[in-house]
Amino acid sequence: MKRKLLSLVLTGTMAATVLAGCSSSAQQSSAGKETIRETKEASEEKLIKVGVIGPVTGGSAIYGEGAQNAITMAVEEINASDSEYKVEIINGGKMADDASDAKQTINAYNSLIKENPDAVVGSFFSSVTLPMAEQASKDNMLLIATGATNKDITLKGPTIFRDCFIDPYQGKMAAQFAKEKGWKKAAVIYAKDDDYSNGLKDAFIENAEANGIEIVYTGECTTKDTDFSSQTSQVVAKGADFLFYPAFLDTVPLLVSAARDSGFDGAIMGGDGWDGADTKGFEEKFINCYFTNHYSSEDTAPAVSNFVSKYTEKYGAESLNACAALYYDAIYMLVEAAKNGGAADTASLVKGMTGMTFTGVGGTFTLDENGDPEKSVAINTYESGKVKWLMTLSPEGTKN
Which of 188, 243, 255, 315, by CA, is between 20 and 30 Å from 271? Predict the structure, then answer.
């Protein structure tokens, strides 16, 4: 979904050629940005100016709270270290609010662009990141998508990257987990009005069938539904021993409850959209439930334990989620990109991001030709309604 940023600092004939290939708005954006770079004080040449976008308000504000805390912590750590490059979060250090709305996301992006950032980080949801990625590509702006897993995002242009896995990969790993656990008959219930749900559903079905798992039922719902009894009754009637429900956290307790009330005692699994689901009052019903995620706070890897320890000490555990970890890693990726590219301007950062191998809270990964990481996924389960790390799953199989 990305790659090969045409350098904004090419000179002579090459510069003319590049500019001739851009739209007029992109030309103006690039030209204005270079003017600012040229007039920076020498002390600022190692400064990476970053705009950050995420859900500050609305039903997904818990993600934004974690992201804001994480980027603040990352910047404090970097700027207090002996790092050659330092980081400034524009917009007064605050994340611009997308309110999980595509139109507001574009407005937030445009407001940040006025401050001439070197890169933009965000957002967490694919539906709002897709239009922003398209605009960022037109502007030759480096964008690191965080939780936006739709496969098309990085395909919008060569300046778009991400640090999360993509939907097809997540669906594939869910099917691999089902195979490893020995489940043979799977049912799927998905939200037909949601791209995320559709993407995971398609990938899961394709890979489940390839792994010898029979799909005995596929049911539809919408993101607004609150009654899942008819679909879950069919899951039981068809004899499924595994139910895949790729949806976001708000409807997860309702679906799980409906499945158990219908008499389904098999495994229920979702994707990273389950992260943060409220299990209060449903604790027993979440037994034998699982979801794939970008990391687990219980992982004993040094990068994870260090992040979790510092975060909980500063902010507590309530807002600590995968969104926080992904935004945190994105800030550190920009510093690594500056080192790789040799400078803090956008073109150098894109150069440094291309093909990057990075180790962070989300593990060690190398960005592919599209700017996407293929990395291990954390499989989480529940104990007494609390999320518990079960295992880490790589394409090659289970990792201890």
Answer: 315
Nearest to 344 by CA among 116, 94, 73: 116
Task: Tell me the whole-structure pTM to 2 decimals.
Answer: 0.79
List, as one string, the DSSP characters of 100-156: T-HHHHHHHHHHHHTT--SEEE--SSHHHHHHHHHHHHHTT--EEESS---TTSGGG
pLDDT tens-digit readout, 336-351: 999 999 999 999 999 9
CA distance 202 to 199: 5
Phi/psi for 285 (5° steps) reads: -75, -20
Q: Shortest CA distance to 72 belongs to which of 54, 55, 87, 58? A: 87
Provide the pLDDT for residue 41: 57
pLDDT (tens digit, 9 = 90+) per residue, 30-58?
344 443 334 445 556 899 999 999 999 99
Start-to-end Cα distance in the chain: 31
Q: Taking each helix axis from N to C terminus, what angle separates 24-39 and 12-20, rounded to the nearest 10 degrees?
A: 140
Q: What is the pLDDT of residues 277-291, one digit of tens each?
A: 999 999 999 999 999
Phi-psi region of 290 (alpha: psi -120 to 50; beta: other; left: phi over 0): beta
- Per-residue pLDDT, 396: 62
In the block, tokens 């990109």 appear at 337
| H helices present in the chain, as ranges | 12-20, 24-39, 61-80, 102-113, 126-138, 167-181, 195-210, 229-237, 252-261, 302-315, 322-341, 346-353
The two tokens of residue 281 are 């009052």
